[in-house]
Write a structure and sequence with these properties.
The chain has 20 helices and 3 strands. By secondary structure, the chain is mainly α. It folds into 4 domains: 2-171, Tetratricopeptide repeat domain (Serine Threonine Protein Phosphatase 5, Tetratricopeptide repeat); 174-279, Tetratricopeptide repeat domain (Serine Threonine Protein Phosphatase 5, Tetratricopeptide repeat, Alpha Horseshoe); 293-349, no CATH class; 351-388.
Length: 388
C-alpha cells in the first residue's frame, strides 16, 4: 500500500503543476487561484490511503494532450511492471478512448495495452490489439515480436511462421532456427492426424530453413520407418551425425531399427566402429558391446568396455560393466557388485540427461523449446562422465 501511494505522488505533483499553470493564468485575469475540486478530492483519497479512487480522479484530471500522453503511458507501464495489471489496463483503455490522440500516440497506447493483456494472460485480446496496430504500422518491430510470442503460446504455428518471416524482413535478424522448429511442430500436429506424407513435406521445409535441424531428421526417420521407407529413414537418421554429433545417442535407436529391418547387421557393426573412431560416445560403445556379446560372449564385451573406460570414464559404461560381471561371478562377489550397481543406478536416476546451453535448465526429458528460457534448440544431451 505504501509503495502504491509513493507511486501516485508524481502523478499528484504533475496534476498540481497543471493546476498551478492554469491557476497562474486565472490569477493574472482575476487576481486569485481557483484550485479545482477534483484535485482536492484526489489528494484526499491519496491521504486516506484510497489509491484506486485517487488514480481515477487524477487520470480524469489529466486531459489527454501532447503534454500528458507520456504521463499516462508511464503510469500504466509502472503498474504493469509491479503486477497491478488491472490498473494498467484501465489507464491505457482510458487513453485509447480519447479522440485527441494522433496516430503515433494511439499506436503506442495500443502497444502498451497489448502488453497489459499479455501479462494478464488474455492472449486473444492482445492478438486483436497487436494485429490492429500492425494494420496501422506494418513495420512495428516490437508488435511483431509480441505477436510471435502469442502465436507460440497458442501453438498457432503457421501464423508464427508468417510473423517470424515478417520480423526477419523488418529487423534483419535470422530466425531460421525458430522457423524450422515451427515447421517441426506443424509436422507433429499433421502426423497425429495420420497424414505422414504431408508431415514429411513440412519437415523438408524445416530442413530448407535450417539444414542442421536435428529434430527434423529424427522425425523424418521415424515417419519413414512407419510408412515402410526404411532406406530413406536410414539416410535421415544418419544425417544427424553431421548436423550435431551430440545427438548421436538420440539417432542410434532409429539407425539400429533400420539396419535390423534391412537385415544388414554386419554393416551396422562397421558403421558403429566408424562412429566410435570419430566420436567418443558411450552410447556407441554400449551398442557395440551388445553386438560383441552376441558374437563372442560376455568376457569379450567386458574387455571392450573396460578398454574404453580406461581413457573415457562413464557412469553408463560402469553400470554395463557391472551387469556383465554379475553374470559370471560367485555369490560373495555378486553381493558387492549389486551394491555398486545400486550406487550407479542412483547416480543415473537423479542426474539430468539434458541441459539448456542458454539458461542452464536441466532435466531428464529432451525439450526442443527450453521450458525455462523459451529458446528453441538449446537443450542438448549432457556430455561427459554422466552423459549418454
Amino acid at each position: 500500500m505504501v509503495e502504491t501511494l509513493l507511486l501516485l505522488l508524481p502523478v499528484a505533483a504533475f496534476s498540481g503543476w497543471l493546476v498551478g499553470r492554469r491557476g497562474h493564468s486565472a490569477k493574472t485575469e482575476r487576481g486569485g487561484i481557483d484550485i479545482p475540486s477534483d484535485y482536492l478530492k484526489g489528494m484526499n483519497y491519496l491521504l486516506n490511503e484510497q489509491p484506486d479512487k485517487a488514480i481515477e480522479t487524477f487520470i480524469q484530471m489529466l486531459d489527454v494532450d501532447s503534454n500528458t500522453v507520456e504521463t499516462h503511458l508511464a503510469l500504466g507501464g509502472l503498474f504493469r511492471r509491479r503486477g497491478e495489471v488491472d490498473r494498467a489496463i484501465r489507464i491505457h483503455q482510458n487513453l485509447i478512448a480519447r479522440p485527441t490522440l494522433n496516430k503515433d500516440e494511439r499506436n503506442q497506447a495500443l502497444f502498451e495495452l497489448g502488453q497489459d493483456y499479455m501479462r494478464a494472460g488474455l492472449l486473444d485480446r492482445a492478438e486483436i490489439l497487436l494485429s490492429e496496430l500492425l494494420d496501422s504500422d506494418p513495420r512495428h518491430r516490437s508488435a511483431l515480436k509480441l505477436l510471435l510470442d502469442i502465436y507460440q503460446q497458442e501453438k498457432e504455428w503457421q501464423d508464427a511462421i508468417q510473423v517470424a518471416k515478417k520480423y526477419e524482413l523488418r529487423t534483419g535478424e535470422n530466425l531460421s532456427t525458430s522457423i524450422a522448429q515451427f515447421y517441426c511442430e506443424l509436422a507433429e500436429q499433421v502426423r497425429a492426424k495420420d497424414e505422414p506424407l504431408r508431415a514429411l513435406k513440412l519437415l523438408k521445409k524445416a530442413l530448407a530453413e535450417e539444414r542442421s535441424c536435428v529434430r527434423a531428421s529424427l522425425l523424418e526417420a521415424d515417419i519413414e520407418i512407419a510408412v515402410g521407407n526404411v532406406k530413406s529413414a536410414l539416410r535421415a537418421a544418419q544425417r544427424v551425425e553431421q548436423q550435431d554429433a551430440d545427438f548421436i545417442p538420440e539417432a542410434l535407436p532409429l539407425i539400429k531399427r533400420c539396419y535390423q529391418t534391412l537385415g544388414r547387421m554386419d554393416e551396422f557393426t562397421r558403421y558403429l566402429q566408424r562412429l566410435l573412431a570419430d566420436h567418443s560416445c558411450i552410447a556407441v560403445v554400449l551398442e557395440l558391446a551388445l553386438l560383441i556379446y552376441d558374437a563372442q560372449g560376455g568376457k569379450a564385451a567386458e574387455e571392450f568396455i573396460t578398454g574404453f573406460l580406461k581413457h573415457t570414464p562413464s557412469v553408463f559404461g560402469i553400470e554395463r560393466l557391472i551387469d556383465l560381471n554379475l553374470e559370471r561371478v560367485k555369490d560373495e562377489v555378486k553381493d558387492k557388485l549389486l551394491v555398486l550397481k545400486k550406487v550407479t543406478g542412483d547416480i543415473l536416476k537423479n542426474k539430468p540427461m539434458y541441459q539448456c546451453h542458454h539458461c542452464g535448465f536441466n532435466g531428464r526429458t529432451l525439450y526442443w523449446q527450453c521450458p525455462s528460457c523459451k529458446y528453441w534448440n538449446t537443450v542438448k544431451p549432457v556430455q561427459g562422465t554422466e552423459g549418454k
